[in-house]
């Protein structure tokens, strides 16, 4: 399942770090954090999508405290 969300992130470098970390989470097929468009795209297992999304947001906040996603 693939979904796009509006997100807030401060810089392109932070977006790259968050994207790299999120891609390592079990169940994530692919992820993109677009700094310019302020979009977060997540492709993850449909059965656990909400659980994986929550984990992705928590992981992003550990790397960049100002990272936020509108769910």
Describe this structure as you would to a colleague.
With 71 residues, the chain is α+β, with helices and mostly antiparallel strands. Helix content is 38%, strand content 32%. It has helices spanning 12-23, 49-63; strands spanning 2-8, 28-34, 39-44, 68-70. Strands 2-3-1-4 form a four-stranded antiparallel β-sheet. Helix 1 (12-23) packs across helix 2. The two termini are 15 Å apart. The mean pLDDT is 97.
Q: How is the topology of this model organized?
A:
Blueprint: E1 2-8, H1 12-23, E2 28-34, E3 39-44, H2 49-63, E4 68-70
Features of this protein?
71 residues, 2 helices, four-stranded antiparallel β-sheet
Alpha plus pi helix count = 2
Question: Major β-sheet, in short?
Answer: 4 strands, antiparallel
| Sheet with most strands: strand arrangement | 2-3-1-4
Tell me the strand percentage band. 25-35%
The overall pLDDT average reads 97
Shape: globular
- Uncertain parts: none
Order of helices and strands: EHEEHE
Distance between the termini: 15 Å
What can be said about this structure in brief?
The chain is an alpha+beta fold.
């Amino acid at each position: 399942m693939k979904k796009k969300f509006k997100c807030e992130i401060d810089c392109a470098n932070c977006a790259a770090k968050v994207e790299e970390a999120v891609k390592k989470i079990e169940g994530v097929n692919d992820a993109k954090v677009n700094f310019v468009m302020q979009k977060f795209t997540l492709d993850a297992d449909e059965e656990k999508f909400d659980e994986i999304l929550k984990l992705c947001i928590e992981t992003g906040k550990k790397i960049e405290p100002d990272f936020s996603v509108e769910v």
